[in-house]
Design goal:
7-stranded parallel sheet; 10 helices; binds zinc ion; 15% strand; 39% helix
């Protein structure tokens, strides 16, 4: 079978073939056959307008955003993509974008991405309305956990319905700091899986939160069951932010999914 790591950030280095090669070398060492390289959309000036309200909501997020965002343009990225495509590698390499989903910016995302010759777009729920839930545990102080979970899954289902993306990243990352709602999530999982299937989207089995916070690895069993019941393709992903993490936990997650012997 093919071993895939479908979510690898290249943001910590310059756009050079040497930098890309570091990811390839680690992928080969980890037995991967295919890697999907990507950038957060906010790295590019073209997507900066989407973040006005989340920066207004939190000084912490405003400071984080101004450190990280809008440092490149999409044409810089596409130049690198072309260079890599013209080079021979021992494994397959795809290029894409990880896009923060905001309902009101669907048409901005459509306009900015429709002519890009990328291999995939993966949508992420990183914000519950204006709340950036995945930065620090203390940001949850005073947050209504039940309401946050409900909105997270409603937004993720809208993401799936938008028709903008090939897949959804880390579809239950809201659990990363150990919060749990008092109600069953099964109906939300079922609705999300149904919309992913309708829109021909994959779901990631992503180990990023596990490495960062020690939470359960990948999707929980109930979500895996819901995805399988609706025929949603599940693709393994490390969410690596540096070459050393490429391929991390992929084989273990394949076993959890019943893919590897
Ligand atoms: Zn993400
Ligand atoms: Zn990511």
């Amino acid at each position: 079978m093919k071993h895939i790591d479908a979510h690898i950030h290249i943001e910590r280095g310059e756009y050079t073939l040497d930098w890309i090669n570091e990811f390839v070398v680690q992928a080969v060492n980890q037995g991967m056959n295919e890697i999907w390289l990507l950038e957060h959309c906010y790295r590019f000036r073209e997507f900066v307008p989407m973040y006005d309200s989340v920066c207004a909501y939190s000084n912490y997020i405003a400071a984080w955003f101004h450190r990280k965002a809008g440092v490149l343009s999409l044409s810089d990225y596409m130049k690198l993509v072309e260079e890599v495509r013209n080079t021979k590698y021992p494994i397959d390499i795809k290029f894409g974008l990880e896009i923060c989903y905001f309902n009101r910016f669907e048409s901005l995302v459509h306009n900015r991405t429709k002519d890009l010759e990328l291999d995939f777009l993966v949508g992420s729920t990183h914000f519950i309305d204006d709340f950036a839930f995945d930065h620090k545990p203390e940001h949850w102080n005073g947050i209504n956990v039940n309401n946050a979970f409900k909105r997270y899954y409603e937004i993720s289902t809208e993401l799936a319905k938008s028709g903008l993306f090939n897949g959804i990243a880390h579809p239950d990352s809201i659990k990363l700091f150990g919060h749990l709602p008092s109600f069953s999530l099964l109906p939300y999982y079922d609705e999300l899986a149904e919309e992913l299937a309708k829109n021909n989207m994959y779901a990631e089995m992503n180990s990023g939160c596990y490495r960062r916070c020690g939470c359960e690895i990948g999707m929980d069993d109930d979500m895996i069951k819901a995805m399988k019941a609706h025929g949603v393709e599940i693709i393994t992903a490390s969410d690596a932010h540096r070459p050393e993490d490429v391929g991390a936990d992929i084989i273990m997650m394949e076993k959890m999914l019943g893919k590897s012997p």
